[in-house]
Amino acid sequence: MQVKPATPRAVQFIIKVSKFCNLRCSYCYEYPELGDKTTMTHEQLDRMYEHIADYYASLDEPTTVKFIWHGGEPLLPDPEVYWTTFARQREIFGPIRVENTVQTNLTVLDDERLRLLKEGFHGVGVSLDLFGGLRVNLAGKDSQDRVLANIDRLRKAGVKFGGITVLSRKNAGHIKSIFRFYERLGVSFRLLPLFAGAYPDQHAGYEITAKETLEAFCTIVDLWLQSDKNLTIAPVTDHVRSVIRYLTPGMPSSFYSRRAWETAVVVNTRGEAYADAEAYDPDHSYGNIFTTPLRELFASANREKSLRASELRMAASCTKCPYFGACSGYTKGEYVETFADSPRVGDILLCTVERGLLQHIEKRLRETGLYGDPARADLDRLRAERLTTEDPTLQALSFAG
Ligand code: SF4
């Protein structure tokens, strides 16, 4: 009998290769560092690869290691930097599967960079807000026309890409046009609510509330359900899957735990590693991945602090949520909400957008008549089991919401 190989688990390393950027988008959380030309060296990248490869080679289960190249603008360095480092990855990682994707503002695109996007990277994310005029260059000029022209070049060259649209008060009123734009192109996209800025009041004038964000997401759900195009729209289509799981008896449950599996690590330009939720907070740095083996970073006291914070966020929001188990709680585990209008327990903002979105999707799916009552008993039993194995602090907090 042939044994089916286990599906590899994935881990992402978000690489801040350099903060240097040719744009000055108003909301950028890297704003104070966008003029800094410091770039990771090949020696530093090699040390990082060695530490990552050693760790995942020592595990019993196969792992896909995904590098997400971020900046600043990661396409400003000479493309040769990437060809060289991809070759080093092949040498250092050996049989471990490695993928590289890049998130670019797509304002600089010559033939060499086009070839790099087509043949070097496994995926390309293009930042594009479509409305609002917040993505400007040093002189304050909107970069959008140039990005749209370069999107045409990507399409003509057959480069597959997705869009990343930051949702702010400046473009939330145009959500239908944003959906139609991507639908017309047949391009999947991520709708990313505005997140904390680099300094207080950075977002004054275009800050978005949880209520406005939820309305925009619900509109996207309705448009997606009516559309003939099967676009993937993060986070909406993931949540549709969660609600189908919730409404379908006997579907397996899943509960997110970073303690069980680290899904994403942010690596800052000088090598400091963090969970996404606490990126750049020195009190939560796991340590330096250029100089320290990954196993030691994962065993650090600061990582333990970060894990506890992730578990407390989930305990405060998820353990009393009817969708927990169908929704894994990943969003609460990995992201710190900053909406001023979200309810809170102590310092922790409770889940409003995700849960509201799941409720809206449930309502829409029930209207189809395809779904009856959810398999409540299974979920309740699993949640109860989980609570009895958790730390008492978490249990106490879970009942505070
Ligand atoms: S509280 Fe939010 S993140 Fe947690 S399970 Fe419910 S919907 Fe998902």
Question: How would you portray this structure in words?
Answer:
Mean pLDDT is about 90; it is low at about 1-5 and about 380-400. By secondary structure, the chain is an alpha/beta fold. The protein has a 10-stranded mixed β-sheet with strand order 7-6-5-4-3-2-1-8-9-10. The chain has 2 domains: about 1-195, TIM Barrel, CATH 3.20.20.70; about 210-255 and about 305-400, no CATH class. The protein has 13 helices and 12 strands. It has helices spanning about 40-55, 80-95, 110-120, 145-155, 175-185, 210-225, 235-245, 295-300, 300-315, 330-335, 355-365, 375-390, 390-400; strands at about 10-15, 65-70, 95-105, 125, 160-165, 190-195, 235, 265, 270-275, 285-290, 345, 350.
Question: What attributes characterize this protein structure?
Answer:
2 domains; rSAM; globular; 401 residues; alpha/beta; disordered N terminus; ten-stranded mixed sheet; two-stranded antiparallel sheet; 14% strand
Short summary:
With 401 residues, this protein is an alpha/beta fold.
